[in-house]
Structures are given as C-alpha cells and as structure tokens.
Amino acid sequence: MLLTVDIGNTEITAGLFAGDRLLRQWRMTTGPDRTPDEWGSAFGGFLIQSGHSPNEIKAVCLASVAPAVTRSVVEGIEQTTGAQVTSVTPRSELPLNLDVDDPLSVGADRIVNALAAIDRYGSDTVIVDFGTATTFDCVTDGRFIGGAIMPGLRTSADQLTRQAAKLPATELEPPSTVIGKRTEDCIQAGVLFGAADGVDGMIGRICAEWPGAASPKVVATGGMAHIVAPLTTTIEDVEPGLT
Q1: From CA 33, how far away is CA 54, in angstroms rounded?
Q2: Which tens digit of pLDDT belongs to each residue from 105-116?
Q3: In CATH, which of 3.40.190.10, 3.30.420.40, 3.20.20.140, 3.90.25.10 is domain 2-87?
Q4: Between β-strands 11-18 and 2-7, what pairing exists: parallel, antiparallel or unpaired?
Q5: Which residues are catalytic?
Q6: pLDDT > 90? residue 122
C-alpha cells in the first residue's frame, strides 16, 4: 500500500492507496510542536482505525511546504511503518517540465497539483487550490507554466479580525445575501464573495494569456474549495482529493 502525505502550512492531508484506488483520506492540523513519536502515533492510529496495519505500508510519498515540521513527520512515519519516505521537490525526476524562470522555487504542493492534473485531466488545466494561500497552477502540454498566488480565505479573514479590534472572528459560511444586516454577515460576504469574484477575475486574465487555442479546464481543490467553488462562475470541477 502507498501512503501519501501533503504537508501544508495549516493542515496535513494524508491518503491511503491500494494501487490507483484511494481507500481513505485524513486531515489533521499542522502542529509544529509535535515530536516524531507523536506524529508516528497519529499516522499509526489513522491506519489502525481504517482496518490496516502500519506494516502494510510499502511506500510513502510526501510533499511539504512547511519545513519546520517536515523532518518530525518523516521520522515519525518511518518509525511507525518501516517504509522510507520519498519527498517531492523541484529536483525530483518527474514527468513534468517546470517551465518557469526559477524552477527550484516552485513549491512541492504546486508540483503535485500539476502532476495530478496531468494524470486526471490531461493538458490545459488550471488548478485553484484553496489553502493558507489560494494558488493558481497552470499546466499545458506536460509543462507547469506558472500561475498566481493570493491570500487564502482564512488568512484574509484572520488578518482582518486581528487588525480591526471591533470585528469579530466569524465562521466562513456563505451568507444568503451580499448586503449583510449583521457584522458577521458583512465579513462573510466580503471574504467569500470577494474571493469568488477574485478567482473569476484571475481565471479571466489567465485565459486571456493562455498559450494555444484551447481553453483550460478549471479545477478547484483544497480545504475551502467546496465553499467557494459554488460561488464562482469559472470553476468547472471540485476535486478535494486531488493531492
């Protein structure tokens, strides 16, 4: 069995595969203070709860954008499963051409998004990944050609309430109207509808610059994708388990 691990700045996503089939998926908070033993216990516990022994894991593939926790996670997984962890980096030998000015600066999360898009959708795809940052990853003809990065929804909302003392922390749920009647509704409308319209605007600009005649397929992934995608007009598919 294959264990895949995607370490983000705020959340870790893990998937258990038998061949090409995804059996289970877990999400957990990226805790920088956890020890290797604690990470090993967490992953081992998830596997056992799913009816599988850690010893069944024969390979582990990891992509991380959080260096502060990567080593502890790797050590914990290797101790628990006995399998060696393979990390995806811009230096990895992959069926993907990083066609950008500085290939070594491309994050592992964006690399695996591009690889997944090629495998699932073929050429001409934009992956909109709603995480700590919202990223636009552009793939065509087996090449990652760049994209864009803007603040994520939760990042924007948290920064807003930290900087404005009288604005309360608010659950990010779509309000029924754009014109809010309560402060919480106003924040939800501004953050969510603003993000949705920002995505549509960015996709319009990306399509205007797209190489070739084909229009790219727009796919959303990430923890907030299911909330924002229905508010947009350009996202065609939502794939929470893309990476």
Answers
A1: 23
A2: 999 999 999 999
A3: 3.30.420.40
A4: antiparallel
A5: 109
A6: no
